């Protein structure tokens, strides 16, 4: 039996060991454990029960990791994605004033579409239709948006009547807590310390407790919070998706998760040496794994699940098989007993994590062909539009509307796919409904 498992995961063939795979899985978990506390904080801003979101996050992450490891056999972990959860909370719920229950139903519908287009192998075709430069712009733009949220939540920047935004007051001790967390986390990341983001959060919490800026929890461990406030809500509110505006929200969930997951999978596969002839083996199973986790996650009560770039930490220490991802999944289940720590994970604790993750995501901007204005202009509008409009969907709309126009102006209209022309009209309708209708 043991040998069959080793053969199934190709442990010997890939030159690794079970011990190394377990260590890699634990390293990946430490690197991304912050999502257990950041996701409830972000979705909590939308009015969702933080305890229920904590449990949903842990369960959805565990399921995605285990499926990715067992079916696709990749050392790639999954969890509710930063960026899309910000879109869910700040753009859809707060910005568009759509109830979180309806937004969650949008995630459920998007995940069903995900599964269908994965089964019929349309997902890769749709992804291929979007120019690579715009994919990079979306990823980088989400990074800027996340960093902006971190700076705002940590009170490093605040509203200013004269300049729209300005530097926060350095007389506020909470600002210094954010600054401490950002500096410590940055140093840890630069030194490539595994789990740097998580360790930075822990050190910031300790400083907050010592200085009295954070109230100590009454206990450290307990049973996982109940899922009752969020479980099944998505299914019960599917009928609420009855307007074009909500249909576009579903489409945006679909598109943003598309780019995030596809780009991360390809990047990690390259790092691990899995790519063959520019193709990723078993990519269908990998996509099916994250689609299933996204569907189940929406029913449990969390934003879309996707592949995590922090998986690179596990790959860096030698993780090469699905055993790495399975180990990470098991660790998420173990992590469910630490829900009381939610009370000490304040905005000042999560802000540095958001800023650093924003930096990591913004690195994709280097891949854009900035020398061609027909590419640079729509890419720039996507990138800058997200933080300045406080909306990921608005940023995407600005770029997708401009792209066919600039390409036609550059006499390259024939290079624009029919799908992109279709999205041009979709997003014009989206902007009209949002601002006029």
UniProtKB/TrEMBL annotation:
Any single GO CC term annotated in Swiss-Prot or TrEMBL for this entry: plasma membrane
Q: How does it sit in the membrane?
A: Multi-pass membrane protein
Quote any Pfam family the record assigns.
Answer: Xan_ur_permease
Instruction: List locations, semicolon-separated.
Output: Cell membrane
Organism's domain of life? Answer: Bacteria
- UniProt keyword list: Cell membrane, Membrane, Transmembrane, Transmembrane helix, Transport
Q: GO terms for molecular function, please?
A: purine nucleobase transmembrane transporter activity
Q: Where are the transmembrane segments?
A: 21-39, 51-72, 79-98, 104-122, 134-153, 173-190, 197-216, 246-270, 321-342, 349-365, 377-403, 415-434
Location (main, coarse): membrane
The entry assigns this protein to a family as follows: Belongs to the nucleobase:cation symporter-2 (NCS2) (TC 2.A.40) family. Azg-like subfamily.
The family database entries (PANTHER family) matched by this protein are listed as: GUANINE_HYPOXANTHINE PERMEASE PBUG, XANTHINE/URACIL PERMEASE C887.17-RELATED
| Protein name (record) | Transport protein
Species this protein is from: Lacticaseibacillus camelliae DSM 22697 = JCM 13995
